[in-house]
Amino acid sequence: MKTAIITGASSGMGYEFALQLDKEERFDEIWVIARRKERLEELCGKLRAPARAIALDLAWPESLEEYKKLLQQSRPQVTALVNCAGYGQFGMWDDIPLQEALGMVDVNCKALLAVTQLTLPYMEAGGKVYQLDSLSAFQPVPGLAVYAAGKAFVLSYSRALNRELRTRGIRVMAICPGWVKTEFFDRATQSSSSTVTYFNRWYTAGQVVSTALRDMKRGKDVSVCGFPVKAQVLGVKLLPHRLVMNIWMKQQKMKQ
User: Fold this and answer.
1) Which DSSP letter does residue 25 get?
2) What is the tally of structural domains in the chain?
3) What are the C-alpha distances in Å from 139 to residues 63, 101, 165?
4) Is position 52 within any domain?
5) pLDDT tens-digit profile, the chain (256 residues)
6) 18 near 32, Cβ under 8 Å?
7) What is the domain extent for residue 31?
């Protein structure tokens, strides 16, 4: 069965990806994965394709093992994989508990890698993998140190994997948005030392997803929504990272 699998689908970018992919392509089934099953079931009711709500916390190895078993039992023909599961915690190093910092690595990096690797054997030529990344992947970001470092991993991993899978006809693309107002920020700004207060420009999840779908058709391996964000990416590539960090810290009024 032609299947789309979307993690982090209970809200934000994953939720929007489910809606837009369902409108753009015909699937025999869509698997939507997240922790909150009631939100997933609500989403399933909005999709035209038959949908399966799968409640998993991908931070836990047991959930990844359960996902592996689901694939083995169903043996789907996965034509689209969307990795949107993840979270961030903004704040300085000494205000973010170690468990939270490790949790970001577990979900944003390890779970993304695991889900990708477990799913690829069920993908054929024409398959597409969308990896939710971030503008922060292009530079070190004080105040988002662990989160940004994890996103740098996602960018490098996704671009290299895209080349590795070229001979199989499978595409992998990293999606690197700037500021997008979703539930992500409710958790990201919980830290008492969250010094991220300057947000130069906001985009919607709908804008980011529609850009990503269009960029995948154009053969890109990185999708960036909005000309101002593209200009920022170019600037970050050209300028020394020490200078880029100084500019960022000045914008956020951080002590230097």
Assistant:
1) S
2) 1
3) 32, 18, 26
4) yes
5) 899 999 999 999 999 999 999 999 999 999 999 999 999 999 999 999 999 999 999 999 999 999 999 999 999 999 999 999 998 888 888 888 999 999 999 999 999 999 999 999 999 999 999 999 999 999 999 999 999 999 999 999 999 999 999 999 999 999 999 989 776 665 555 554 556 776 778 899 999 999 999 999 999 999 999 999 999 999 999 999 999 999 888 888 888 7
6) yes
7) 2-251
Scored b (16 or more CB within 10 A) or e, 18-53 reads bbbbbeeeebebbbbbbeeeebbeebbeebebebbb
CATH number, position 37: 3.40.50.720
- Is residue 216 helix, strand or coil? helix
Of the candidates 128, 132, 113, which has an alpha carbon nearest to the alpha carbon of residue 8? 132
CA-to-CA distance for 95 and 113, rounded, in angstroms?
Answer: 27
Assigned domain for 71 exists: yes
Separation between Cα atoms, residue 256 and residue 249, nearest integer Å? 7
Is residue 256 one of the residues assigned to a domain? no
Tokens of 222: 């990185």
